[in-house]
Amino acid sequence: MPTKIEKDTVSGQDTTGHEWDGVKELNTPLPTWWVYTFYATIVFAVVYCALYPSWPWLTGHTQGLLGYSSRAELSVELQAQTRARAKFVDKIRATSLANIRKDPELFNFALAGGRSAFQTNCLQCHGAGGAGSTGFPNLVDDDWIWGGNIEQIYATIEYGIRNTDDKSRQSLMPRFGVDGLLTGTQVAAVTDYVLSLSGRAKATPEGAKVWQEQCVACHKADGTGNQELGAPNLADSIWLYGGDRDSIYRTIFYARNGSMPAWGTRLDDATMKMLAIYVHSLGGGR
Amino acid sequence: MDARLRDEDAVSLRARKAELPLYLTRIKVYPRAIKGLWRRVKWAVLVLLLGLYYVVPWLRWDRGPDAPNQAILIDLDGRRGWFFDVVIWPQEIYFVTGFLILGAFGLFFATALFGRVWCGFACPQTVWTDLFMLVERLIEGDRNDRMRLDRQPMSINKAIRKSLKHAAWLAIAAATGGAWVFYYVDAPSTLVKIFRGDASLEIYVFIGLLTATTYTLAGWAREQVCTYMCPWPRFQAAMLDEQSVIVTYQKWRGELRGKHKAGASWHGRGDCIDCNLCVAVCPTGIDIRDGQQIECIGCGLCIDACNQTMGKVDRPPNLILWDTLANQQAKESGAGGAAWQPVRPRTLLYAALLLVVGAVMLGAFWLRTDTELAVQRDRSPNFVRLSNGDVRNSYAVKILNKSRDEQHLQLAVDGLPGATLGFVGTDIQGGAAGTRLTVHPDSVGTFRIFLTVPAGTAPSGSKPIEFTAADVTGRKRAAHDAVFVGPAR
After folding, report:
1. Domain spanning B371-486 has what CATH number?
2. Which of A47, A236, B261, B416 is the most exposed place for a label (fewest CB within 10 A)?
3. ipTM here
4. Spelled out in words, what is the top-level CATH class assigned to the domain A72-166+261-281?
5. Is the pTM here over 0.90, yes or no?
6. Do A281 and B381 count as a contact with CB atoms less than 8 A apart?
């Protein structure tokens, strides 16, 4: 306990009464405003702890008298967003794809909404700009495996490709090499024939024979493919799984059957319509 | 406090005498009313500036339907600045930057020539403080009455006068805050809304904020703003030199000062009769006879005060006057005087900078068009190879139509022979050859543009190109640089 509080002659201030080896300390209290601000923060903390979730215990935490939760706050904001969009979303639901494209306001909303949905659901495979990568089709170019008009794009999104949905787009390319339908030499010959369609190799009679027997049914005699069957065009310069000789050989030997989910089971109609309009506008739409 | 101090002593003197090292409670200044030339100039400037400030938002300007009819309106909601027939878009904010630079150099220029004329006559702090002092004087009386009133214990008279004064101050402050808001929203309709209570929260907040600052700064803080808060007095010394015309006490003529009895001789003494009127009228409470000080705002009221006294004692006027340090030094040394040199390297430099910035702004203003083109190339993917081997780039094209009419524009690309243009958008008419893009009045048209080049002629890597937009008569209205990227070969 301080014992000898005395007045310092130089400063006129009281000392604290402590003394260490003859050194005394001036009593300079905290400014009043500071002290009261500090008390105010203590009061604030107590009130806050009572009103808001604050103290953790083993399995949870105190709820607070106001019943506040940030999750509830977020859901209110999300609902407000949904309500704000409802006017346009309802209109998109009720309007045909062709008519949406004629209405500037709806079209711009659909483009923005489609872009947003694309970034959430599609970009993982098709890339941020829709350029795809090996095995995942490029949506920006003018080559379509299952058709590039807006209704066909919508159908592809809704039902997907080679999945378990009843209406899924289905087709299966045989595993010519693995299942022994063709020998390695035959596969090599027909690979040359496929390359010859885009003028990059010389076709052999054996290749032409295999092509006629095995490939024409789906890919057509001139190799331009069939969108009804999802048989790609082999005569152009776009190759989903690579267009070099090695890649084409592997495609014929092992077959390639990529799949896409049926988004109709996950997304609502308006979102898929907006997605179709966005994808169609990327550059390849017919 | 020193016993020798008198009521009429300068605040600066009293502060020195108090000898408190770090902190000094404000010594209240009670400026006395004065009549004279510079007081009249100050009233004229005050009426002009306050008149402009309060009246300008109410000026109307017919711009036809779908546009505000307020002559000067900074429409934050609509993101437009309306100045009579000029419409400023957000991306033209550099005009504001230009005006700020002009303002800064104008301030330097005026200070190099005439000292702190801005502080003394035109600064909002000075103008509103003057107005508040006028109100104070009308309600509480002049200097001596106010000092007596403040010394009195509280009485009914004091309470009435004080509350009347603060009510008047708050009313002026509220009008000031209101007028500020009217520059950003439609004035007449907002005024009605404010009184009906259904204006937006932001409007009430800003009126409240500016009411509080006006009331505090002009009513209570006054010269403390200039002395302690404002950075300008701290570095204006760098703008002043011995050729700047500033408020000056002619020490060589005034000293030795002393009381003077009517009829006594003026020989062997100065003209200053130590009446202290120059101190009593000073809005910052200093004594100009101590020389140039940081507190002096250069308002010239001490000149009026001294001339009144000189007139009474029948001595020549202008013992305190606007003059240069060089001239004063010449006179003091008996050399007669030194002609004022307004043309100096520093003033030439400021004038040149003013001219250059002004010319650049005028040029920019003249060259601004009502159509602007902005082109952004898609980089994901960098380019697309089409099934027949052609190479395509896509661009987001925005066309700004700043006019009040719908525009029909034709987009073309220079520097890429054999390229074909493709469009995605709703406001498009005509075939690919003569496609016209429609941009609505006062808005931005957004289009997605595809540029396709045949396989053989596609550039290797990046190639600079230019987008141009022409109107129906073929006149070029806007252009924007871009690049076309092809596969590296």
Report:
1. 2.60.40.10
2. B261
3. 0.76
4. mainly alpha
5. no
6. no
